[in-house]
TrEMBL record:
Gene from which the chain derives: thiI
Gene Ontology molecular function: ATP binding; CCA tRNA nucleotidyltransferase activity; tRNA binding; tRNA-uracil-4 sulfurtransferase activity
GO biological process: thiamine biosynthetic process; thiamine diphosphate biosynthetic process; thiazole biosynthetic process; tRNA 4-thiouridine biosynthesis
UniProt-listed SUPFAM superfamilies: Adenine nucleotide alpha hydrolases-like, THUMP domain-like
Positions contributing to ATP binding: 183-184, 208-209, 265, 287, 296
Family: Belongs to the ThiI family.
Identification of the protein by name: Probable tRNA sulfurtransferase
Amino acid sequence: MKEVLLLKLGEVVLKGLNRRRFESRLIANLRRRLEKVGKCSVYTMQSTIYVEPADGVDMDEVLEAVHNVFGIVAICRAAVCEKDMDAIWETVNTYLADELESAERFKVEAKRSDKKFPLNSIQICQKIGGDLDDKYDNLIPDMHNPNLRVTIEIRDKAAYVHAGKMPGPGGMPVGTNGKAALLLSGGIDSPVAGYMMAKRGLELCAVHFFSYPYTSERAKEKVMELAEQLTHYAGRMEVFVVPFTEIQEAIRDNCPEDMFTLIMRRFMMRLAEKVALEHEAGALITGESLGQVASQTMEAMNVTGAVCSIPVFRPVIGMDKEEIVQISRKIGTFETSILPYEDCCTVFTPKHPLTRPKKFKVEEAERALDVNALVERALANVESVVL
């Protein structure tokens, strides 16, 4: 029996004259994700994307490959049959045999996109629902709280039978809203921030700051593992590892201790912006949450963000830690994030950091450093890894 996936679109259908561009990008993302699984035909028709695997391709693997692709709000795994009531009845009994035997309450739902089909949606439901009620003693019709939804879709090419929708990831197709650089640490917040902005259609690259020997190679491997986990949602990603030891030592040796973290964050923003612009990314993404730590007060973020000329997106800014942790668990990054390998943000942490800094005082403290030279040397030794 031939199976297909019917992928239902969300916000994409609201894009008016731009809709074709969004659909084309979504289809391209799906095809790229399916390359490792096997040959599949992917096309759109009647506000639905069809994924038809070639003979021999494992449908479970196809489903696994597409279920994290942003832009899809629902997924239906369906059997294909002729647009004929006898064929539909046979397919319902064969394809949904296990569900029909184990369910207690059922409902039949029908959608007739092909208006030439002789029965309308209500008549299809009445016919199939009545026959199921007659055949299966274990089934009770329940229009309000069924545990099985027998769904029949009459479309242009064929009829499709399935047991209802599975939720998709929603959002916008990655790449439809541009590209941004994620400041990726080894913590919980920044991978969640990257996931959330990829869901809004941003293609991602990542910038990680590495302070060897104060941070270990294992810490860098941890960040690469987090980036790899993000690719399940964001697709291909390039990670730029920026050497940060010299900058942190210069801050330690020349700047007031209570400003260490603020000045360090300003360097991170400068470096990330330059990497972003060099690689055609138009914004930065951080995992900052208002008030979570001393460098994430409103005043501190004003000071650290002042060195940037491009937008800085902070998608978790209004979330508490538990909300961020919940998303981290959902996307599979939490267990990696809590591995005990410290990142450079923990190096030379002041005992009493400023929480309400004045920008002019921080700028005055920075004059003890050759900022441009430090930035240029760090950029000259950036390591790039494509995942």
